[in-house]
Design a protein that fits this description.
globular; Oxidized Rhodanese, domain 1; alpha/beta; Alpha-Beta Plaits; 30% helix; 249 residues; five-stranded mixed sheet
Length: 249
């Protein structure tokens, strides 16, 4: 959803893309973010960027404009949400091996995205109980167990994972149960489910999809958020947000 007037705006965005200059990129992007009074975390890794920042809307947009000058980050799909106060305590720029750790080097979203389904289409499929090709649709939660406990899609598969790097082993145990079905992997904002969908395809599940933009985009685009129950855990002081994208800091 579009940002509404609030004391603070919160943004979330990511992109899998080759970054061979992570150190210099951090030195380029961090000072302007600090000067603008932004708070939150920017993760940089050879496989891409992950941004979760809060601040004045104009200041955030200015920093995004600076980021977008680099062709690698032009046209980022940014989720905007209002907040009563900044849900982050300070600004962090971190360099990681992966922006989301899976420990599977053959999974390279920057080389080609996984097939996806958008929120309105998924809502329609869930209502019908099948995809447009007539296959049963199952929702696969790729988040940690405590996140699932706070809120999830009705009937979603939950493998009680403690960390995302558990996903490959969990899939190895359960892959036969998913054969012949359209499997829609989902997570908070899309990073985990994008890697999960690619891994499932590599493991012989040809109808594995990611939910485009994750739960947060479903909140924005699926009217009434059908088949969703509860709140979505976010990793900041809000702890969890409702279908309006708001939470208590």
């Amino acid at each position: 959803m579009s940002a509404t007037p609030a004391a603070v705006a919160v943004i979330a965005t990511y992109r899998f893309v080759d970054i061979d200059d992570v150190e210099s990129l951090r030195e380029h992007l961090m000072p302007p973010a600090k000067a603008a009074g932004l708070r939150g975390t920017v993760l940089l890794a050879p496989e891409g960027i992950n941004v979760a920042l809060a601040g004045d809307r104009e200041a955030l947009q200015g920093w995004l404009d600076l980021l977008g000058i680099d062709p690698r980050f032009a046209g980022l799909d940014v989720k905007w949400h209002p907040a009563a106060a900044a849900p982050f305590d300070r600004l962090r720029f971190k360099i990681k091996r992966e922006i989301i750790r899976m420990n599977q080097p053959t999974v390279q979203p920057r080389a080609g995205r996984a097939p996806s389904v958008d929120a309105p289409t998924l809502a329609r499929w869930l209502q019908a109980g099948q995809c447009d090709a007539g296959r049963p649709v199952v929702m696969l939660d790729t988040r940690n167990a405590f996140e699932v406990d706070a809120g999830a899609f009705e009937g979603a598969i939950d493998w009680r994972m403690n960390k995302f790097s558990d996903f490959p082993d969990a899939l190895a145990r359960h892959a036969p149960e998913l054969q012949g079905k359209t499997v829609v992997s989902y997570c908070t904002g899309g990073i985990r489910c994008e890697k999960a969908a690619l891994w499932m395809a590599q493991q012989g599940l040809p109808h594995a999809l990611q939910l485009e933009g994750g739960i947060l985009r479903y909140f924005e685009q699926a009217a009434g958020t059908p088949h969703w129950r509860g709140r979505c855990v976010v990793f900041d002081a809000r702890e969890a947000v409702d279908a309006n994208g708001t939470g208590e800091p």
